[in-house]
Amino acid sequence: MFARSVARIARPAAASIKARGFATASRATAAAGSRMAAFATAGAVAAGAASYAYFQNVQSPIHADAKPIAGVKGGANERTFIAVKPDGVQRGLVGKIINRFEERGYKLVGLKAVVPSKDLAEQHYADLKGRPFFGGLVDYMTNGKAPVIAMVWEGKDVIRQGRSMIGATNPLEAGPGSIRGQYCISVGRNIIHGSDSYESAEKEIGLWFGKAGELIEWEAANAQWIFSDN
Ligand code: IDP
Ligand code: MG
Question: Is 193 a catalytic residue?
């Protein structure tokens, strides 16, 4: 529910990005003109044009992302939120983690490096508020010693399979073939997050990728070799 409302609020923002690019250009032009600085005017127009071009480029995904933010539950386009936490980034495990999902046949539809705000981390871990480790958890996620690598992966049963690939919360309980079972030994430094249900995926994708244009809908050329019931 929450995520849907985030998505609803966020989507129109995309449409306004182009308008914002234009507005920036005209504001800049007006300001420079009033100072009778022809050079500055030319610069501002160029800067405005450049920023307009930038927004044009970054806000024009191959296909508009029109599907529900976490895809269709149980469908081939189900989505989950996966994040390499700062300890995983510091330890140079980002590539290995991405590899696991890619090699399994899942599709990457969103990716960014973020130092989350305290507010974002607290909302993300809202169900753990009141636990003794909550403050330390939020600090380690947000202190900027390394970013969080936030991702959205798409594919059949990706939420459940993602949790299984990640392994138990306490890495000492995680199977040896799982990501946590292979790469870590401490619950407070368990390197990766994955949504634990469709509802969590909706909430988390909305929190981390709620702005329009942040998720890219694309067709994998090898899809027929990955998914078929024949
Ligand atoms: P999950 O990440 O496997 O979904 P949750 O129970 O949702 O596990 O906890 C979120 C995160 O909080 C864990 O991944 C871990 O980083 C941290 N955490 C959970 N339990 C403890 C604990 O007992 N001590 C310290 N950190 C914990
Ligand atoms: Mg959890």
Answer: yes
Q: Give the count of beta carbons closer than 10 Å to the beta carbon of residue 86.
A: 22
78 Cα to the center of ligand 1, angstroms: 24
Q: CB under 8 Å to 62, separation ≥6 — which residues? A: 216, 217, 218
Give 166-172 contacts, CB < 8 A, sequence gap 24+: 166/82, 166/192, 166/194
* pLDDT tens per residue, range 84-104: 999 999 999 999 999 999 999
The residues that bridge with 189 in the sheet, in sequence order, are: 186
Return d(Cα 215, Cα 145) in angstroms, integer: 26
Q: What is the pTM of this model?
A: 0.78
Tell me the C-alpha distance between 163 and 201, whole Å: 12
Choose one of 165, 169, 189 to mutate for the ligand 1 pocket test, by most ligand atoms within 8 angstroms of C-beta. Answer: 169
Task: Kindly give the distance from the C-alpha atom of residue 8 to the centroid of ligand 1, in angstroms, as a whole number.
Answer: 30
pLDDT (tens digit per residue) in 24-70: 333 333 333 344 344 444 444 555 555 444 444 544 444 556 689 99
CB atoms within 10 A of CB 202: 24
Token pair, residue 171, equals 């890495």
Distance CA 130, CA 120 (A): 17
